[in-house]
Amino acid sequence: xxxxxxxxxxxxxxxxxPALSDRRRALQRWFPFLAWPRPGPxxxxxxxxxxxxxxxxxxxxxxxxxxLAGMPLVTGIYASLVPALIAVLWSSSTRLGVGPTAxxxxxxxxxxxxxxxxxxxxxxxxxxWMALLSGLVQLLLGAVRGGWLLNLVTSPVLSGFTQAxxxxxxxxxxxxxxxxxxTWHALAASPSIHHFDGTAAAFGLGSxxxxxxxxxxxxxxxxxxxxxxxxxLASRALGYADHDGAVVGHLPxxxxxxxxxxxxxxxxxxxxxxxxxxxxxxxxxxxASSAKVEHQQGGTRWNENQDLIxxxxxxxxxxxxxxxxxxxSFSRSAINLYAGAKSGWATIFALALVLAVLLWLTPxxxxxxxxxxxxxxxxxxxxxxxxxxxxxxxxxxxxxxxIGGLTFFLTLATAPRMxxxxxxxxxxxxxxxxxxxxxxxxxxxxxxxxxxLRDRHLWLLPxxxxxxxxVRMDAELDFASAAALERxxxxxxxxxxxxxxxxxxxxxxxxxxVTGVECFARLRGLATAQGGALHVSGMKLPxxxxxxxxGLLDGPGLVLYRTDGExxxxxxxxPL
Length: 576
Known about the structure:
By secondary structure, the chain is mainly alpha-helical. Helix content is 58%, strand content 6%.
């Protein structure tokens, strides 16, 4: 037998002590950024270029979305810096493009309409409170592991709301995009080409055309900053600002200062409550759509509760900087992934670029025409408009397509209080869910020639036994379905006095509650009163444990079978 090889010279790897490993996991739980890969030259090179790509998109989009939210333009850059830093440090999804987004900005601007003058100190304070309250709600939901609540909003409701919101965003940006100097009502009353600023329209429509072409050419290219820079140079060369053209103007340089918006009155709190809940819901659904893509690509599991905490803290950080609520941008997150980002280091590089803009480069944005900012917003939201979505839903489920369509029209009809649209869609969806639970599928079964149990009346099958009513309910036996099952069986027995036995094929029943237990007891008594018994096939362990604790599995009048095959053999031998 050959001798065992001697260990290689030099220091040998040592296993991490269990106590140290547990301490490391605990630290990473509280500080997720400690789990990032250690930076090396190769990693940092790839992360740098991915970060520069996203960072070059952040600045023009942040300024444009601030205008959409009715906020001072510099707050869009603030919202691209502090919240994104907090989110990437505490999130389980480190490659998301966190910052201002079109949907969240529109909701903020629409919700505050009528409460203050856009851009005023009162408006900024209310927007900051929306960020603080929305962040607090997300933080609490994450702390109590409430991420499952996201499942209450279905795809049809979100699609209907998103389509309507995209149209509202387009409508809100058209005046700036076309250089309209007056209102649409005044234009309709007195049509004239003089109501438009031709130079602004040329800047806006030209920029929109270039952005669209650049997106089709290479979607990962940071075309927005290039086009905005070209427009700024052209505007300065033409002296557009000197001729009273609408430009970005002066933006303050330097880091955001700590900000406290003052206390809300009870009336203001009541007015903000519903908008805050909808902003919380919509912004985190935006985050979820991006995070799922990231984790599917990386082969990891999404921790939605950790992301709720991270993005809640990010929103609160934004509010305390005098800015507005943020979310994860699907487009910026996708570009971050396409650019090759592997970790949160890419976001750190992107934020370094945003920081440089805040410290030294804000004067470069002075001459940017506001119509170009409108073009940036319009180019971003056109990808949200998908008319074929409702038609595809109609082919799959007409009820859900109707819910999505009503959400769409109610969102448009209730603007600027557009949050009522998504809330109405949520209520309609829950009503549809409850209706389905209250009306479960209950069939009388017969044995098909292939040996399976199917709907006896649909397939024209003979009964399993002459004096037997055999049923299957494809639902849980709980408060929602118990009444329907009991009514179906009792009505059948009343209409057929010759029926003596009832068989419940219970394999689809995964759970039973107290109402279901009481229903089970009444069904057993009903079968016994007919002079027969209640037969149950395929009862699952969780149901069996509850019924056994209730004392309903002992005594006469009940026959249990482990499998459907065993039940079929026994039922065919029932006496007439």
